[in-house]
Design the sequence.
């Protein structure tokens, strides 16, 4: 086999597609079933559709997203990105991820589900994967020229290879319910908006969300691990109280019924270092490609997966899969997304985690059209964090309004 990809999330499927469409053999090992509902808000920014040429008529999304609704700690509310056209899409991951699997399959990528992969290392170098199939616990070794690990967070591959750097200050934990509600009622009460609620009273140093789908609301919260320990609370308790007592959200959720709960970690660790070794690349959440202020990771995972796949093809063509050649992967991901990862972390820690800034952001967006547009473009993924901060640096009159 030329390439093995670990994990059939958005990063893994895009990596596999990039390899297979150039005629190289690639197999994706997925520990779960290929149709699996990954815990996620399911907000997909418009740039995903554009950059990956996804078929808008396909049945992979549940609802078009036209706006972003913010509620400040003081309970001021605003609806951003007042657009006619789509700001993005709202998806159930079971459906969305499987559409990406099907797309990759059409290019020739192979998938093996319910198969757990471990790094297979020989003489200090990765040579493939060791697999365990839970049905018969049969172990096998699959050799290949390049392994691309897209195994999510916290990555088993990154931890085993000693390149994982998560700690209580750069990892978040999340808890969410999928709630059933009549679709007509969702249309009327929430509409086509992603809703984000700030306030330490509800989620300390994090935020809560309501993302509408078709007859389903994804209602959740997330914050840093250190915040949970410091406040001696747990996210389930916070979320239950948010649903029952939040002055704005509780009224909207009166008729929503919990179907099931989900919980997962989010790694805001910054880009893993190194993200490539001889015969090996790390992509998606496993490599730390997720926006720290918003938690948006689908776009960054798909981009990093695709770049990893493209670099793998170039390495195979050049008969050089050494770390010296794979350095290209870091250069290209840094160029495309490095600034968002670095600036995003500081934007969140120094500004967005603070209730005063959250109140100011909503207040100023309500009063000033320029700030309103800028906030909408940032949260909607239209501009990056560096561009956002630069625009404010050349408009000190606007910056003052946020301070
Ligand atoms: C609660 C929550 C809400 C979120 N909301 C949003 C949102 O609204 N919008 C957004 O853009 N992002 C959101 N994210 C982030 C987004 O879900 C991730 O960034 C994205 O799924 C990362 O894709 P990935 O392919 O890197 O990893 P994943 O989607 O996590 O896929 C990794 C895959 O690898 C498999 N795997 C793991 N280990 C192994 C192994 N050893 N062998 C074989 N298979 C393995 C897993 O089963 C999994 O299928 C959210 C995350 C959470 C936790």
Sequence:
């Amino acid at each position: 086999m030329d390439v093995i990809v670990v994990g059939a999330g958005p990063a893994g499927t895009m990596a596999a597609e990039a390899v297979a469409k150039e005629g190289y053999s690639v197999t994706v090992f997925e520990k779960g079933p290929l149709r699996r509902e990954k815990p996620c808000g399911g907000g997909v920014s418009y740039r995903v559709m554009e950059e990956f040429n996804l078929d808008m008529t396909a049945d992979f999304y549940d609802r078009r997203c036209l706006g972003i609704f913010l509620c400040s700690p003081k309970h001021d509310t605003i609806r951003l990105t007042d657009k006619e056209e789509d700001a993005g899409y709202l998806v159930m991951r079971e459906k969305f991820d499987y559409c990406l699997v099907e797309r990759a399959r059409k290019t020739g990528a192979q998938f093996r589900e319910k198969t757990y992969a471990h790094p297979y290392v020989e003489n200090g170098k990765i040579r493939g994967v060791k697999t365990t199939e839970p049905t018969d616990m049969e172990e096998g070794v699959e050799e290949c020229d390049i392994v691309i690990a897209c195994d999510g967070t916290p990555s088993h591959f990154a931890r085993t290879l000693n390149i994982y750097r998560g700690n209580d200050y750069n990892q978040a934990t999340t808890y969410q319910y999928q709630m059933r509600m009549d679709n007509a009622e969702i249309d009327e009460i929430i509409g086509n908006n992603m809703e984000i609620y700030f306030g330490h009273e509800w989620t300390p140093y994090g935020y809560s969300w309501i993302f509408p789908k078709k007859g389903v609301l994804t209602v959740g919260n997330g914050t840093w691990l250190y915040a949970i320990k410091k406040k001696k609370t747990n996210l389930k308790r916070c979320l239950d109280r948010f649903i029952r007592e939040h002055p704005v959200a509780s009224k909207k959720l009166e008729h929503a019924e919990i179907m099931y709960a989900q919980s997962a970690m989010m790694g805001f660790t910054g880009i893993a270092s190194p993200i490539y070794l001889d015969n090996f690349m790390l992509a998606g959440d496993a490599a730390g490609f997720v926006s720290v202020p918003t938690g948006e990771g689908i776009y960054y995972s798909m981009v990093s997966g695709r770049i990893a796949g493209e670099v793998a093809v170039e390495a195979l063509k050049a008969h050089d899969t050494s770390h010296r050649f794979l350095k290209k992967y870091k250069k290209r991901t840094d160029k495309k997304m490095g600034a968002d990862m670095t600036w995003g972390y500081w934007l969140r820690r120094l500004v967005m985690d603070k209730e005063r800034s959250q109140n100011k952001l909503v207040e100023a967006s309500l009063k000033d059209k320029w700030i309103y547009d800028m906030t909408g473009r940032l949260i909607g993924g239209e501009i990056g964090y560096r561009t956002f901060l630069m625009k404010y640096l050349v408009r000190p009159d606007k910056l003052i309004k946020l301070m």
